[in-house]
Amino acid sequence: MITIEHLSKTYRKGVWALLDISLQLNKGMTGLLGPNGAGKTTLMRILATLQEPTSGQVSVNGIPLSRSEEIRSMIGYLPQQFRIYPQVTGRDFLDYVATMKGMKDASRRRKEISELLDLVNMQDKADKKVRTYSSGMKQRIGIAQALLGGPEILIVDEPTAGLDPQERVRFRNMLTRFSINRTVLLSTHIVADIESNCRRIAVMDKGRLVMTGSLEELQQRGAGLIWEAVLDQRMFAQADPRLIISSKATAEGMLCRMIAPERPLPDAVPVPDPSLEEGYLALLRGAAYA
Ligand SMILES: Nc1ncnc2c1ncn2[C@@H]1O[C@H](COP(=O)(O)OP(=O)(O)OP(=O)(O)O)[C@@H](O)[C@H]1O
């Protein structure tokens, strides 16, 4: 369990990458959702003990972040820009990381690496050079390196960026399997990444935690704010681009979904069941409507 209390971080005077974040992360997968620059990477790097907060406390199973050696043995981290030297094989790379993590016994290393390669379904490619891997395969090796040493907590920063749709689905399913007995924190700015596999979500925006709760609660944030109307070409071209959140060409014109605190056009009808994505957009726009 990770307990975060009043965590703040500033890189430059007056600009807060994190502002008074309090959050508890339990077993299972939590989705950390937020637009670019929300502070997700900063939060994850602090949890992985790679950066120090400006103020606030974090403990992992009761142990403070200042005991970084112990924390690192409990946490596996896959950074956003995960790079592997292209000339080595996946297996050799994992062996290198395991050695760096202090796993001295070569036969135990071999056994654990083999088990992890099975887990991420990379056993058959493990002896090929990394330069021959797809983005998805590199990410799977990335997860394997994060899991070396059997950490009970896994922190994964935007892992699906750059993956094709099939690899995305495979990767999400793999994370879901891992989260059964572990605490997993998955950051993303793509709602679909958390839709199928996160029971709990935390949404950040401009360094603040703007919501924690279930997917249903996020979806509900769109209630009363999403509208639908058919716009002809002229109306569509003239509409405020912030108003329209999706559109579909139909025989009658452009069928548009709009986001607004009040009926935006005389013909607009309220959407009774906004999607999760619409709930997320409504939440992010919330401050603008207040
Ligand atoms: N090393 C740094 N020096 C100065 N400012 C930084 C630094 N790293 C991040 N920031 C700023 O802190 C804020 C949060 O950035 P962060 O990378 O944590 O957000 P993020 O939610 O992970 O965004 P992204 O999805 O784009 O990675 C941004 O305003 C960013 O410009």
UniProtKB/TrEMBL annotation:
<protein>
    <submittedName>
        <fullName>ABC transporter ATP-binding protein</fullName>
    </submittedName>
</protein>
<dbReference type="InterPro" id="IPR027417">
    <property type="entry name" value="P-loop_NTPase"/>
</dbReference>
<dbReference type="GO" id="GO:0005524">
    <property type="term" value="F:ATP binding"/>
</dbReference>
<dbReference type="InterPro" id="IPR017871">
    <property type="entry name" value="ABC_transporter-like_CS"/>
</dbReference>
<dbReference type="GO" id="GO:0016887">
    <property type="term" value="F:ATP hydrolysis activity"/>
</dbReference>
<dbReference type="InterPro" id="IPR003439">
    <property type="entry name" value="ABC_transporter-like_ATP-bd"/>
</dbReference>
<feature type="domain" description="ABC transporter">
    <location>
        <begin position="2"/>
        <end position="231"/>
    </location>
</feature>
<keyword id="KW-0813">Transport</keyword>
<dbReference type="InterPro" id="IPR003593">
    <property type="entry name" value="AAA+_ATPase"/>
</dbReference>
<dbReference type="Pfam" id="PF00005">
    <property type="entry name" value="ABC_tran"/>
</dbReference>
<comment type="similarity">
    <text>Belongs to the ABC transporter superfamily.</text>
</comment>
<keyword id="KW-0067">ATP-binding</keyword>
<keyword id="KW-0547">Nucleotide-binding</keyword>
